[in-house]
Amino acid sequence: MATFDFSEKLPFGEMFLVRSSEIEGRIDPLYYQTIHNFIFAKQKKYTVSKMVDCIDMQRGRFGHRPRNDPKLYGGDYPFIQTGDIVKASQNAGKITYSQTLNKLGLKTSRLQTEKAVILTIAANIGDTAILDYPACYPDSLIALTPKSDDLRLEYINIYFKFIKSFLEDLAPQAAQKNINYQQLAPVPIVIPPLAVQDEIIRIYENALLARNSKQKQAQTLLTSINDYLLGELGITLPETDNSLNSRIFTVQMSEVGGGAFDPFTQFNKHYRIEGGKYPNERLDNIAFLQKGQSITSDDIVSGDYPVIAGGQSSPYSHNVCNHKGNVITVSASGAYSGYVWYHDYSIFASDCTVIFSKDENKLITEFLAEVLKVKQQEIYLLQKGAGQPHVYPNDLAKLNIPLPDKPTQQKIIAHIQAIKAQATALQAEAEQLLSQAKAEIEQMILGGAQ
């Protein structure tokens, strides 16, 4: 083979050799550079095998169009999809499903009966979870099983947690990234001895158990906030009765009083969280309610201020803000319209209603936020519209807010802040436990100390 004299002026890794026998269906240099520089493939202690040689790959199938044809669904066969795997991967939990296929749907899909690692290969790339029950799956997923007894299924699942970003880099640059058999085939798989694989599995599973325990403790604390607040306000939650007798009722015309005439509004008003041992005030008497400012994606200039719109998280950030913090937002439209969110930082309020106290000496905005969070379900019931539900400021204005004196509000806020701080500490400990385990496992895969 001819020798090549690479210039010393070239940055390391920008020029490298690939044998023609190693090129399988793709010749762009970035793809092979990614594989060439893969850190796990460089370790020398354990066997490194190509994925195609040690793992059997079965891509899912779903050929019928339209995909949402109702005649395919509602049967005995669980149908898992990309979102189910992403959720299970992020939570390190069991794969759950929300749809089933019937016999007609089964004919257009693939049924996985053997226990397998399921890998996402479209849009969300590289998420994995173990499927331990028979289920159908579409072509955006691949089922992975070891080809020999030298490889544990659980180890494959853990290994892919470490190479997710590597797989994302392998995907061709496109509007929606995806990878296929050909791109996965040469992926290096480090295969330690079974005893090492078993130790890796033990460390990872123990760390998950410890993390989940901490997270459960944190969630228990956060859940206790509502009970604490209701107890301090002297409010007893109304019991919901969905029996037929309770759903048939009469309302005096004088009680409608220019409000909504639909039965849902009249029924739900009996389940409002209000009253208690303190006087109540209408929200619009004690707080400002302002509509957010419309903004399109074309208007966005990336910056430091989260844009608060119709969801439960910020979709993007902007370079200017329209509120300086200490405000509450209630999502105005979409599936999560009515979602209550307190911000102690500057934001750009868009598709939402912004709420803040008219007089902090009478009503502390942070206290109001906790009351509105307790009333979250009540606020969701204010949604109007079928295709695109909305929660309107005029309906929020009518909410009754318990109003204790300022020292009581301050005491309640301090107690809730303490609970949240304790929960945050537990959540941080939970993630630290898993991070430490991952660091230890990475060194083991690289052939380090055990």
TrEMBL record:
Sorted UniProt keywords: Coiled coil, DNA-binding, Endonuclease, Hydrolase, Nuclease, Restriction system
InterPro entries noted in UniProt: Restrct_endonuc_typeI_TRD, Restrct_endonuc_typeI_TRD_sf, Type-I_RS_S_subunit
Keyword Lipoprotein part of the UniProt annotation: no
EC class of the enzyme, as a word: hydrolase
GO biological process, one term: DNA restriction-modification system
SUPFAM superfamilies, sorted: DNA methylase specificity domain
Coiled-coil annotated spans: 416-443
Protein name: Restriction endonuclease subunit S
Origin species: Morococcus cerebrosus
Lineage of origin: Bacteria, Pseudomonadati, Pseudomonadota, Betaproteobacteria, Neisseriales
